[in-house]
Amino acid sequence: MIVKKFYGRTVEEVIKDIKENLGEDATLLLVQKVRKKGLRGFLGFKEIEITAAKEVNFEIQEKISPVSEDGIIPELPALCKIKKLLKEEEVDTDIINNVISSYIEATGGNRLKLQDLDTGILESLIKGLIKTENDSFKSGKIRSIFIGPPGAGKTTTILKLAAHYSIEESKSTAIITTDIYRSGAIEQLKVYSKMLDIPVEVAFNVRDFERIIRKFDSKDVILVDSAGRSKRDKEYVETLRKFIYTIPLQGLKVYLVVSIMDSSRYIKEVFENYKILYPNFIIVSKLDEATSFGNLINIPVLTDLPIAYVTTGQDIPGDIEVAKSNKLANFILKGNVDIK
């Protein structure tokens, strides 16, 4: 069976193209509006995309009536179920449409196969979208800075990682904070660092930061906390850039910490503000508070960055895990479909 995508300004125009290329016996599988490719797409221009298949025994009709309001042929319940499941988990619409298109291609557009949902195919597609970093706890000296908006959980995440490195791996660990705006964050670091026997220093400016970096140079692990400021605070982001340039580049990791509770639109705005700092990885926090898990797909797709860790509670030590795509996919699919 042949499955192809066709594009045009109107449904009628695309259907005509389908008939000319696949013949009168072709059928519509999915109708949707998508961004045009290239500059016009960047400027917001859209076009009609129809996924069609050949060798299915029912006729195409030149009307949109066989297609439901969400662009899916109603006689194909597997696609309807995918749409409903991902929409309830608050996955971005464009990503949902791409998943559906990929599912159609994976089944070869076979109408019988599109009747019942193949959870194995769906799970594989979801896992493929959740990019993860598989070498998070690695050997050698570690130099990491944590950036992100206020309330994302940067300080708590740093303490979780510091506890892991010092207790589980017996690495000499130090913490530096550049967050001079919240006395509560500094006190939190000092209280836990005393419990963990980890030194903490406050850097009030770049010169302080340079001095402290040299002081802790012999440490296996240095974790740097930063203030959470408004996503529109360009001046502070520029200050952070100067701090980052001070850290020896070898082994430097820049983690963008975001909460799964935030909207994907907000997270995208945050990323746009912080991307001049060239983050390497994402940490997704507060999974224990989430009622939907679509951001586990939205975040790596929108940022094109792998998820390194997820946090699942407030306990220190504990409640932090290396991100694994199969486990994160299960957060989305569990309770909705039977995972194989």
Features:
single chain, 340 residues, alpha/beta, Rossmann fold, 2 domains, 8-stranded mixed β-sheet, 3-stranded antiparallel β-sheet, 12 helices, 11 strands
Write a structural description.
An 8-stranded mixed sheet has the order 6-5-7-4-8-9-10-11, with helices on both faces. The radius of gyration is 24 Å and the shape is elongated. It is 39% helix and 19% strand. The two termini are 26 Å apart. It folds into 2 domains: 3-117, no CATH class; 142-333, Rossmann fold, CATH 3.40.50.300. With 340 residues, it is α/β, with parallel strands linked by helices. α3 runs antiparallel to α4 and α8 runs parallel beside α9.
Oligomer: single chain
Shape summary = elongated
Proportion of residues in helical segments: 25-40%
Classify the fold: give the CATH topology of the largest domain. Rossmann fold
| Total beta strands | 11
CATH architecture of the largest domain: 3-Layer(aba) Sandwich
Helix and strand content put the structural class at alpha/beta
Number of domains: 2
Strand order of the largest sheet: 6-5-7-4-8-9-10-11
CATH level-four homologous superfamily name of the largest domain:
P-loop containing nucleotide triphosphate hydrolases
Report the average pLDDT across residues. Answer: 80
Instruction: Give the CATH level 1 class of the largest domain.
Output: Alpha Beta
